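To illustrate the input format used throughout this study, we show a single complete record. The first block contains the structure-token representation of the backbone; no residue identities are included at this stage. The design step must infer an amino acid for every position from geometry alone.
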């Protein structure tokens, strides 16, 4: 989710905004005179999901029903044993 800020807000909070882009992966749309003029985002493949979005999504999840743990155990038992890879020395 992109955050819209004015060019004035951007210039006054440059250091904070750069930290949020770098450490939180947030994206900003800079608006001047009501019109978007630029987007500031992390370089490369930027995550489109922020921590805030994940936390909001988790809050809406329902608890698993009765027997969920049994279903997980059954699924795990039905998987073949993994073969150990032998590393060359």
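Output of the design step:
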């Amino acid at each position: 989710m992109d955050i819209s800020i004015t060019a004035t807000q951007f210039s006054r909070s440059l250091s904070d905004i750069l930290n949020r882009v770098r450490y939180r992966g947030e994206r900003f749309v800079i608006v001047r005179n009501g019109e978007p003029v630029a987007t500031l985002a992390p370089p490369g493949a930027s995550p489109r999901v922020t921590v805030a979005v994940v936390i909001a999504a988790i809050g809406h999840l329902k608890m698993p029903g009765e027997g969920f743990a049994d279903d997980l155990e059954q699924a795990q038992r039905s998987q073949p044993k993994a073969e150990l890879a032998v590393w060359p020395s």
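Structural context for interpreting the output: The longest helix spans residues 14-24. The domain at 2-62 is CATH 3.40.1620 (YefM-like fold).
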